[in-house]
User: Fold these one by one.
Assistant:
Number 1:
Amino acid sequence: MRTKHTVNEPVFKRVASILASIDSPKKMRTFLEELLTPAEVRDITLRWQLLERLAEGVTQRKIAEELRISLCKITRGSKILKQQGAVTARLLGTGKSAVWRTRGEGSSCVFHRKKRQNDRGSSGCVARASCPCFMGGTPMPRGV
C-alpha cells in the first residue's frame, strides 16, 4: 500500500531558496540530474512541454495526441496558465512561447486569440479579467 506523504514546508522552502540561488543553466541542470530520478526529469520536461504547447495556443486534444498524455493533465496545466499572476505564465512569456505574438499592426493573445485594441490606445487581451497576459490591470510585459 502506498503512503501519502505530506510536504514538509520548511524543507520545501529551503529547496525553493536553493533553486533560486543557482546562477547558471548548466549548474541547474546538474543539480536537477543529481536530485531527481530519470522518471522525475521526464515528468518535469513533459509538464513543461505541455505548458509551452498550451501557451502557443495548441488545442488540448492535439496536445494529448502529440504528447500521449491524458486531458486531465493538460487541463491542470491550462488552469495554471489562467490563474491571475501565475509565475508560470510569465516565465513562458520570455521564451519561444511568448504570451504576446506580434502580428503586423497589433498583437494577439495566444490564450484567447483575440486582437488587441491598439487603435484606441488600449492594450491587453480583450478578455482581460481571466487572461494570464493581463496581470492586475496591466498587460504582461515581455521578458518578465
Note: The CA atoms of residues 133 and 140 lie 5 Å apart.
Number 2:
Amino acid sequence: MQQAQLDELLQNAELRKFIANHIDIVTSAYALQNHKYDFDIRTALQQIDLLQRIRKKLPEWSAQQPILTRKLIEQCTSENVARYKSTLFKGEKMLDLTAGLGIDAYYMGKNFDMVTVCDADRMNVTILNSNFELLKFGKELETYNIKGEAYLNADSKQFDLIFVDPDRRDEYGNRNLGVSDYSPNVIALLPVLKAKAKLCAIKLSPMLDVTWLENVMHPSVIYCISEKNEMKEILVVIDISSKTKLQRIAVDVLSREKVLSYSGSEKRTVTYDTTAGNDNFFYEAGNAIIKSGLSKQYFESNGMQVLNNNYTFGLAEYLIPDFIGRTFRMTKSGAYNKKNFNKLLGEREITTANITARNFPLTAEELRKTHMLKDGGAITAFFTRDLGGDLKYYLTEQLN
C-alpha cells in the first residue's frame, strides 16, 4: 500500500461507503467494468479483496471493515488463537514490541489497563490507531513509530507483560530459520526484556525445536498452539519471579468457545464412551501434542494401546471425548507388504484413500503411487513401524 492510498482510505468517506456497499462483489470481475468514481477504485477493490480473505481468520474485525494490507494479514494471528492467549495474562501495563496489525495487542490488551505498542513502520502505526478506534478498543493506548528494542533502551517504564512477535523474514521476504536472525533478535534481547517486565511472552515459529528453546531461553512455560490441528505458533513465556519447574502445554484451538489443552501433569478423569460399538478406535495424536513432546504421557493417561515408538498412533476399544488429534474407526490392520496390501485394496474395491505415513520407509506420496490410490474419500490408511520395528498398515474410516 502506498501512502496516498492510506490517506484516501482515512479521509474519503465515499471510498469507505463504496467498500461497505460492495463487500461481497467479485473484485476481479468488477475491475474489468468501466466505472468512474471520485476516488481510486483500485484501492477500494484491494481493500474489499483483503476483507473477504480475512472473514474466517478475523471474523469480528472483518465485520467492522478495518484498513488492511497484504503483508499485515499474512503475518497476523487469528482471532481465536489471540482470544485464547488473552486468557493467559492480565495486569496493569502491557507492551507489544512488534505490533503489526495488532491482533494480539487488541485481544490480550483487553485484560490490561494500559497498552503500549511499537512498530518501526509508520504506516502500520497509522493503520493500527485507525483500526483500534474503529473497533472501540476501550483501553488506554500509546503507540510509537519506533523499533521495539530502541523503545526499551529509551524508556524506563516497567510492564506486567512484554509481548514480542519477531519478524521471521529477511529484507527480501525469505523466511529465517534461526531465532538469532529474527527481528528483533529475541535471544540477545532477553536480558533487557527480563529487566523491564514481570512476564515476557514471545511468539515463535512452530518449526523450532522445543527442547532447544528450553535450553536457550529458560522459560517457565512453553505453549505449543495449533488451530484445528494445524500448528500455528510456539509461545514461550518467561516468568521472572517463578521458581516452578518448566511446563509444556499442548493447545488445540477448535473455535472461539472450545479449546483443548494438555500439560502432562493433570490427571484425566473422563468417562469414556463404551456404547459406540465393539470396534477398535484408531487415534492419531494432534500436532500440538506431538510438537510439545507429550505424546507418551497423553496416550498413557488415556489408557491407550501404543502402536509405534514415537507415540503418534494409538488404539482403544472406546471413544475418548475431546481427544486432541484425530479419531477413526479401525476396519483392518496387518503386516505391510506391497503384494498383500494391493490384494486387500482389490478385495475391498478401494481406489481412493487418504494416506498418512510416520516412521515408514515410503512417503505418503510414494505409497499413493505404489498402490495407485487417488487422494480423498472416507477411508484413511496409516503406515508405520510397530514397537518391534515391523512395517504395519492400519485401514480406518471416518466417524459419522
Note: The chain has a mean pLDDT of 92.
Number 3:
Amino acid sequence: MGRDRAGQLGERMSEEEPTPGSVRPGGRTARTRAAVLTATFDELGEGGYGELTMEKIAQRSGVHLATVYRRWGSVERIICELMIDKSADIALPDTGSLRADLLGLASGIGGFYAAPRNRRVMEAVVAAAVRQPYAAEMLRDFFRDRRCQAAVLVRRAIERGEVPADTDTDAVISALGAPFYYRLLISRGPIDQDLAETTAAAAYEAARAGVFRHPAAGPPPPRCPDDPPPDPPPDPESERDPERQPQQGPAPEQGPAGVEPGARQG
C-alpha cells in the first residue's frame, strides 16, 4: 500500500546523510539494495531476528560487508526498510462501498501476515524498536503513514453519506488494524480470512453507528503529511485589549430626519 510513500520512507532510512561515495548512480545501487533486502528476508525466514547479523546478510547477498555497513549501519535499519518495502504491496481498494473497502483492506492485511516470513519481518521490527530509538521512530512513522493513506476510504464514505460527517477517519482505520497486531504479537494466533471478515464488519458497523465520531472536546486527531495547515488560533491579547481590535471609522453625520447631511434646508 502506498508505494510512493513507502519509497520516501525507504529513501529516508537508507540515504539519510549518506557517506560521500556510498550511493552510486545508475542501477548498481538498486541492485545492491534489492540483494541486501532479499537476503535479509531469507535470513529472517530461516533463523529469525535473534540470529540475524550483518555478516550473514553480506554473505547471503554477495554484497561486501563494508558496503552494507556504510549504507545501512545496522541490522535494525535494514529490517525497517524491508518492512516498508514489503508492506507497500497491500492495496487500497476503491469499490464505492465502505463495507467492501474495509473488507478488501482487511483481506490484504490478513493475506500479507498469513505468510510466516512477513510475520517475522514485523516481529523483528517490533523487537528492534524496543532496543533502538531509531527503529521505534520509524515504526511509529510507518503506522502513522499507513493510517493516513487508508483514511481516504473513510473520507470517501463520508462524502457518500455512509457514515456521519464528523467521523474520525484515523479511529476507524485503527480499529480495523488493531485486531491483526493483537493476534500477531500478543495472542500469537492464526491470521486468516475469518479474522479479516469479522474485523471489517465490526469496524464498518461501529462507524455507521457513530461510534467513531469526533468528541466535542479532547485532543485533535493525528495530522497526516498531506493535510492542509490548521487555522491559526485566535489571539487572546486582541480579545482582551480593545486597542488591538480593528478600529471602525466615525459614524456618519446625521442630519434632520429625511435630510442628507450637508444638504440645504428650505
Note: The first helix runs from residue 3 to 15.
